[in-house]
Design a protein that fits this description.
globular, about 150 residues, mainly alpha
């Protein structure tokens, strides 16, 4: 079980990692904080679901659903393309360690562990992709609720 202090540290790190990624992608400076919030909320969802279900694949899917919905809402609210928030916010969820360990075990000759890590990494990547596609397929009207009432 993770302590609240550990979770807060992870959320702060996720925020700054997301903002750093926003700087790298030359996101407008006035969107840095919103990109960081997107990444932090996605990571918070990941931590909570992973704690409850114990599955990184389910946690990645749930976090991607939330992250993409937040990105769409921020895109409408901030009048900015969704990619500003989505690409930066998804950064903490990308299974980089899984890719690394898959390659590591393969190079070390442990094909069973390489296959195991590779399968898990592929499942996470598919879960992230499905989460993005699912939320992006929803009508734009849903994300405008309460923002521009005079336009309906």
């Amino acid at each position: 079980m993770m302590s609240i202090f550990d979770a807060l540290i992870q959320l702060v790190v996720a925020f700054f990692a997301t903002v750093s990624f926003a700087v790298l992608f030359q996101v407008p400076k006035h969107q840095y904080a919103w990109s960081g919030i997107t990444g932090s909320l996605g990571w918070l969802c990941y931590l909570l679901v992973n704690q409850g279900y114990g599955s990184v694949v389910i946690a990645s899917f749930a976090a991607t659903l939330l992250l993409t919905a937040i990105s769409r809402f921020f895109a409408v609210w901030r009048k900015t393309p969704i990619t500003i928030f989505l690409i930066c916010g998804i950064f903490p969820l990308v299974p980089g360690a899984g890719i690394y360990y898959t390659a590591y075990y393969f190079i070390m000759g442990d094909n069973a562990m390489a296959a195991l890590k590779g399968e898990e990494t592929l499942k996470i990547a598919v879960a992230i992709t499905l989460g993005i596609v699912l939320i992006l397929s929803l009508p734009q009207k849903i994300f405008r609720l309460g923002l521009h009432k005079d336009r309906f």
